Amino acid sequence: MSGAGRGAVTRSRSRRPGRVEDAGSRPAAGSRLQPSPSEVNLEKGRQTPPDTSPFAVVPAGEAQVRPLKRQRRRPKAGSLEVCYEPLAGSGGEAAGLGPSGSSPWEPPAWRQHLDNIRDMRESRDAPVDQLGVEQCFDRDAPPEVQRYQVLLSLMLSSQTKDQVTAGAMRRLQAHGLSVDGVLRMDDATLGRLIYPVGFWKSKVRFIKQTTAILKDRYRGDIPATVAGLLQLPGVGPKMAHLAMAIAWGAVSGIAVDTHVHRIANRLQWTQTETKSPEQTRAALEDWLPRELWSEINWLLVGFGQQVCLPRHPRCASCLNRTLCPAARES
Fold first, then answer.
1. How far is CA 136 from the centre of its chain?
2. Predicted confidence (pLDDT) at residue 36 exceeds the cutoff of 80
3. Per DSSP, what are the bridge partners of residue 32?
4. CATH topology of domain 136-248
5. What's the count of helices (H) and strands (E) in the chain, helices before strands?
6. Under 8 Å between Cβ of 291 and 13
7. How far is CA 318 from CA 3, 117, 243, 309, 322, in A?
8. Residue 238 known to be catalytic
């Protein structure tokens, strides 16, 4: 559980981007279509822009055909609709537009929610601020070693408190935390150094497998893409987006952990209740301005550690107590 990458090791609103002919609308046998003005004018030697209006179908031999409906007017200058290509990996509408070009959905009062959370996080004294991933790597090590340590701290942090992750990282660094150093360790030594992080036995296996892949395929560095990071054993979407932010200084998506998932649902920042962090990430990325993605993890993780607790949230001291749907229901 760690904050989003506000300071990168080496350290952004756009988001992700005809008419089908019905079989019953095809001309009947022996019928013809009225020629368009552009075709007539071409015969006269003068070309005009093609007319896209649909024309009525009439039996052959009739002299005149009237349009089914009036021609659609061309949009005036300044009235063009602007769309953006969709961001890969997101299930949302194009940035700034909802279905059929309508305004995108956004939660009521979300900006006030966010401003209040910023005020409550101003002191930066939550565990994530002191012991999160951004505080766990050796800033004096070579850049590729720093990035490797960022990735390992993220792998250790899953289902583990920041205090426990930070302790395990200190023990590993004292033993020599690098790709070659970990590959030289036997499993028993690695397990002893990372214990008692959550699921430490599985993490020993994942760390050894991932480290061997980094050595063989990436010359001891870590992948510089989300897709590459997700190929590594034990690395999930939250870890991949945080690694991109902290290690590479790139905002690739919103990192959603248990705190972000819980708070987003309590504040009703999703149109419907989401059941998993990945559903929450997709829902948030559909409407939250991209320039805010980098701070959401850091803000909500610390807020969740200090105020919006999993059990018995401290609503009485929360600046959002009159705005939060969950607080009003409690």
1. 24
2. no
3. 58
4. Endonuclease III; domain 1 (1.10.340)
5. 14, 2
6. yes
7. 20, 9, 31, 11, 9
8. yes
Report the range out of 18-27, 68-77, 151-160 with the highest average pLDDT. Answer: 151-160
Task: Give this prediction's pTM.
Answer: 0.71
Q: What is the pLDDT of residues 94-134, one digit of tens each?
A: 344 444 455 689 999 999 999 999 999 999 999 999 999 99
Residues in the chain: 330
Q: Running DSSP on this structure, what letter comes out for residue 49?
A: P
Report the candidate in 152, 308, 131 with the shortest Cα–Cα distance to residue 242: 152
Per-domain boundaries in the chain: 110-124+255-327, 136-248
Please check whether residue 303 is in contact with residue 117, taking contact to mean a CB–CB distance below 8 angstroms.
Answer: yes
CATH code of 110-124+255-327, in short, is: 1.10.1670.10
Which pair of structure tokens corresponds to residue 91? 């299930």
Could you say which DSSP state residue 135 is in?
G
pLDDT digits (tens, 9 = 90+) for 141-157: 999 999 999 999 999 99
Catalytic residue among 44, 161, 201, 238: 238
